[in-house]
Write a structure and sequence with these properties.
Elements lengths: L1 E6 L2 E4 L4 E9 L6 E7 L6 E7 L4 E3 L7 E6 L4 E6 L8 E8 L15 E2 L3 E6 L1
Parallel strand pairs: 2-11
Antiparallel strand pairs: 1-3, 3-8, 4-5, 4-9, 5-6, 7-8, 9-10, 9-11
Length: 125
Amino acid sequence: HVQLVESGGGSVQSGGSLRLSCAASGYIYSSYCMAWFRQAPGKEREGVASIDSDGSTNYADSVKGRFTISQDNAKNTLYLQMNSLKPEDTAIYYCAAVYLEYCMGWYKTISYKYWGQGTQVTVSS
């Protein structure tokens, strides 16, 4: 069993930055796809970014150039550096994982087996 715990959310003004962390524990496989999703009130959960065990990344168009996904394998931790934040980035951010060799359908919630509990990000104008 795998547990994912997010942290680092908070409230910032437009143009500010935050870094989210996702600590993984339990049985960690060497091949994986991990991702960040977000869900705003009244909207569906959407994929933000993903990274696989080879370091290949994917980003939603809405965050390209502003967000960076990264990982620290020694710490079993996933990160999301968010810069130039906008009010429309306000959402609950979730960490997700699946133990496959590649990120197939990275932006689809159905592609992931494990989920964290979420962390709130609020961006004010």
